[in-house]
Model the fold of this input.
Amino acid sequence: MQLPHENPYTILTAIVAPAILTNACSVLCLATSNRVARVVDRTRTVAAELSEIEPENPDYDVRIRQMERLRVRNHLLYQALRLQYAALGSFAASAIISVLGAALVYYGSTFAFHTVAGIALAIGTFSVAALIGGCAYMVRETRLAVQNLAEEAGLAAASHGRGESPAKFLR
Done:
């Protein structure tokens, strides 16, 4: 194994890897934020539909279940965003610390380099764990979204059987 001062690609790899993960994490944060906006829009739509439906109507219970799932989805997405932002900041910190480590190698301070490399590795490990945790929340949220879609499809099919337009329920 080559030491960092013997091969410049070793240092470049240590700097570029967290930077690439920072970019990937920021794209995931953007996608998650978009999902939050979709949940908010859908919550408003279902709330408006609930205000137009009598509690005795069978569709009322379906909408109440959907509202509860939307509430849970919103909570899961916010938890995912918290972890994703923590991962994003940590990946950026890891990249900066790696640059510091590269400077220490250049100046021949091997003990300080090893210390900084250990800190960067610990922060990078936390970043990956936070990213995995955020993705786990996203998987749980996606399952609820699929449940709502299945229920919407069933409601649309049932309304079509009653002579109503299925498009009314698939906004």
